[in-house]
Amino acid sequence: MQEFAPDIRSTPRAFILKADKLLVQEKRHPIKGHYYTLPGGKQDPGESLVDALHRECLEEIGAHITIDRLIHVAEVFRLKTNPVIRAHQLDFVFAASVDDGYTPQMGHHPDPSQVATLWLSTDKADMLRPSYVTNLFRRSVSSYAPLYLGCFDE
């Protein structure tokens, strides 16, 4: 049986749509394989969710973002591989945008498994992790009120 990490981690994420494409991080992991995630990450103590999301987007995708509003809260149990544990995480997903001239790029401090930043089309939505992101992308929730879609394993 896998142990659980002792704390619940709060994680802001950016949901950035441009036309029918979603801005994502492309990742390759020796155990988890090839997949895509929303930019964002761990909130530091004393940091607001908005400040954390601005910092994470600069680090991961090299972008200054404009944050609109909270569109989704997801409860996620992430598999961590060293040591093997389940981490309990709350993802706070914000509708956001980048400047019109932004070209996808890696930031100055990308995630260890990140290999690229790109605009993803809906035909690859099944490769988004965690799976709630696939549901959000297909529903184009940028025009909806905040949603809770349930609990997800990554």
Automatic annotation (TrEMBL):
SUPFAM superfamilies referenced in this protein's UniProt entry, alphabetically: Nudix
GO function term, MF aspect, one: catalytic activity
InterPro entries named in the record: NUDIX_hydrolase-like_dom_sf, NUDIX_hydrolase_dom
Pfam families in the record: NUDIX
Annotated ranges, domain Nudix hydrolase: 7-142
Designated name of the protein: NUDIX domain-containing protein
Species annotation: Roseibium hamelinense
Source species taxonomy: Bacteria, Pseudomonadati, Pseudomonadota, Alphaproteobacteria, Hyphomicrobiales
